[in-house]
Amino acid sequence: MRPGRGPSRARRPPSRHPRPASGPAVELVVRDGVAWMTLARPASGNRLDAELLGALVEAAAAAEDDDGVRVVVLGARGPAFSLGLPRRCRWPERSWPDGVGALGTLTKPVIAAIQGAAVGWGLGLALACDLRVASTAAVLAVPEIGERRFPGGGVTQRLPRMIGTARAMELVLLGTRLPAAAAAAWGLISAAVTPARFVSTVEETARTLAQKGPLALRLGKEAVLRALDLPLADGIRLEHDLYVLLQTTADRRVGIEAFLARRKPRFGGR
Q: pTM value?
């Protein structure tokens, strides 16, 4: 027996059923008009199981209903943004909440802060956001077909709309792993920055959006998203209609008064 130590004890075999993680699966903090939404299951690689998807639905609803929230930032704890579905899960059960869809239907701008790997359905979650800022340590991938599974989470539908058919085919069919720098060159993410600059870049992007008129942000987002499904002439009419609608708001008067007074506007979202 070593000096200063008690009797040695036999090691317990590792449990086959690890203890469930404590705390919320998705953390939500609202600060200065920004809803900071964080995937908080780093031990699992933030895999999208029923618990995490349900927490995403609840957090998205809370951010949407909060009039003080102008921008949403989706980030993650740990080395991975999200590694997709749980291991050995080929497709979510029908009873599982649609967390990806809940994020994609938010009317407020959503920024994905991708600090690490975004894989499969995890990439689908990032694509459901409006803007994506990534660390150069991040990598994007759609490995399902090579693993004898089928990709989901909207990946096969959103990728061609964002980067074109040829590049989408490369990611989906070949399973090419795309580093953040290449993703930025392809236009899949807005910026790829060093890990040292990642947090400050995300904060600056969120702050810039939060200072803009919330109604203008919502209507601008609506116009761009609906452009994907409308004929050009109908889209141009929608653009005009949304412009006219914006001219009737109190925020427009606030913006004009602030411009004439040479001060920052204080928009009320009305």
A: 0.84
